[in-house]
Write a structure and sequence with these properties.
It contains 19 helices and three strands. The chain has 411 residues and is mostly helical. It has one domain (3-405). Helix 4 runs parallel beside helix 7 (132-151).
Length: 411
Amino acid sequence: MNTQSRNAVILAVFFIFSLGLRLWGIEESNFFGSDELTVVPAVEYFFSDGNFMPDEWTHPPLKYYLLYAGMKVFGNNVYGWRLVNVILGSLTVVLLYLLGKELFPDLRVAAPAAFFLAVEPVHIVYSRTFYGEISSLFFFMLGVYITLRYLKGERSSPVGIGICLGLALAQKWYFLPLMVTLPAWVILTKYRDGGLKRLDVPHMVAIFLFLPVAVYLLVFCPWFKRGYSVMEFFGMQLDAYRAMQAQTMSWFGNDFFRASPSSPWDWFIKPILYGRVTGGDGFYGKFEIFMSNSPVWLLAVPAFLYAAYRVWKNRDGSLILIIVLFAATYTQFVIVKRAIFLYSALVVLPFVYLAVAHFLLAMSQKRTSYFFMLMTVIALWSLYIFPFATGRSVPLALYAPLISAGGIAVP
């Protein structure tokens, strides 16, 4: 089997594996769950008269386009509401593998990073309902991948980067810091390699600034049709920022959310597990869970410290990019005033996983047997927590340690 065929097989395996984990049991909740309660009814009103109600007006409206497409293809049912995220979430795993291959020549970095995301309980849970983090992360990862291909001369134009940045931003504002970071990386890299021409800078400003802004404005077309001006649009965006900054924990009506761990400082320094029982018979139980994949998440700090050491010693450009993208995204969660929940960690996890995979490979001294032993332990743990973290019916005796660690009262 040649290299191209092998890569195609690996991509297919990752996609099918990820799709199966996210698709399994998706129809069991045949009623609106979480954000679906407001987002699904809002689709009709948004396209008919530009009204966001009954949904929040503070978030960009790309979600309505994606949900509308899903409902047109799969119907106004659980598949129409959720399959877009299931598919985009699975494709994000594939993109992470491709991104890892572009950054590191050793597949023992790309493949584990993609596997970590494939079995990540937070990503699986939110891929199974309509949360904007899933689709926005997909578009951003696609933009980063196109960036690397462009810098390697394998794409002639960076237009695709600008479009992807605009689509990511039109779903979530998480990626606003990266509107500066990623273009700066492109310009500096081209300057370092001697490929930056006089006309490149204004051309890139147009692509990285005006193109994403144009995409962002376009998704508001139904709102503009109500007669609002561009100046009123900017006023509305400023009001949205102020409203979101005021969203403290008490603002949220979901008791389960309010009681869940939410500090970004906790994400990578201690295990996170909080949940409640949703069903059971005394021997088996179902749970609603907020849970990190702790054996991987807790390696983030040593992994980034090691990456910083390698950068200081060898000026490794791939590691610099991972550190910069992680820092630009993670820092906003630390300094922002509004309440932050565990699902926001999704947008930094791909960079964490690449750093952790690189770290594990180095710690095993690149010996394949040691490396696969580490991967096997993490894989077994990840598959063990999968049914518990994703609401499957599990034997209480087998999962008693997790139930106890989460302080979950089982009747």
